[in-house]
Amino acid sequence: MKRSIIFSITLLAMNSFCCLAAYVPQTTGNPGSPSATTTIDGLQLPPPLQTFKGKIEKNAVDSKPYWPSRIVPPKDAPNILLIMTDDVGFGAPSTFGGVIPIPTLDRIANMGLCYTQFHSTALCSPSRAALITGHNHHSAGFGVISEQATGFPGYDSFITRDKTTIGRILKEHGYWTSWFGKDHNTPEFQTSQVGPFDQWPIGMGFDYFYGFVGGDANQWQPNLFRNTTQIYPFYNQPGWNLTTAMADDAIEYLKRITAINPDQPFFIYYVPGGTHAPYHPTPEWIQKISDKHLFDKGWNVLREQIFAKQKKLGIIPQDAKLTPWPDKLLKRWDQLSADEKKLFVRQVEVYAAYLAYTDHEIGRVVQAIDDMGKLDNTLIIYISGDNGASAEGSFNGTPNEVASLQGVNIPVKDQLKYFYDVWGSDQTYPHMAVGWSWAFDTPFSWTKQIASHFGGTRQGMAIAWPKGIKDKDGTRNQFHHIILNLQVN
After folding, report:
1. 294 has pLDDT over 90
2. Which terminal residue of the chain has fewer beta carbons within 10 Å of its beta carbon, N or C?
């Protein structure tokens, strides 16, 4: 049987198990008792008030109470873990031909389905708004990122109630709902500690939020919130990193809700800061990647390596042609000086370490679900990037992304002198050179922000649901967009 799933996951579990034309509620317990439960058809949210079927007389002795039934998901509805990383080019991860080892994404693809023609909007906020609402990003108020919002329809950075989120829909159906990581869908002028909070995750249907609000965050000392309270767990904690702390908090959350009610399904929206700049992996991960010498031959050879592996894996057609290198825009690797090569290799190794580190911490969350015995009935959707690799680091890369965005370009010799040894530490806010970003979008041309070319919009994606998807290690090559339906089996 094919199960149609709206990719924003809107009504996902309900579409899988309910036939609305002849809907019969699933009930447990004695109706009117505090422990009674029921399901809803989802045609109206919030659902209509339940009818009081007790009796009210002049005195309590003659009256009969009648509690409303607690709303729960349908029997066997899956848990849902929706993962999306940030600014990852199609050809960066190993799953889609890249040289950067990504075992968790590989695991999800091997357990289920690999999607080779899935597309984003080429920008962070718009892709995320489309994903969590199932609507075109303009319809959801995010024609641009929240920092560039204007007071015009489609561009004001407000997700209105008629474009409700998957969090609210699943919460109304009885799911636990939570959001971990990046929130780039709150109006910039409402991100302070006084709100208002109706456009924050907890105002959009998510019971719990642990993450940062805005386009990026320092992973060593982030602007971090639990629900709407700013927290500072990194104070006096050398080596603390949000990438690990976020996984820790998600695992603790899973243990907590499972202890309270092990049968209630959960929906976790897990969206780490990686690999949006700043690239802040731990030193151990930088060393792991540096020891592999993956990038010593430069970005042109890297493109060819990725392209060949993509054909070998069947990610692209065997007769595919590699898009030409933009010679009028970017230098080829053999045209660079020794200093440029040295600096650029350091930049990309830190980026690759950040991607591998991010995937590893995602893997800890997946493994925690497995250890709880819940993996078999958990639908895991892992989207590799909300848009293509970013070219926002300038031609030479930068130790400070914010400076680069303001047009301040630091010469290679100064980057080598002052920042080479601390690249990726809390003394930098780094972004790699454009040549690497172009290579990580192989086999396509262009990058993040460019919606007219697949380098900006093509994302790798894998979906696993051991109980529901029977075509293990399968591939789906049909065209998909972040707001459209897809068949998972």
Report:
1. yes
2. N
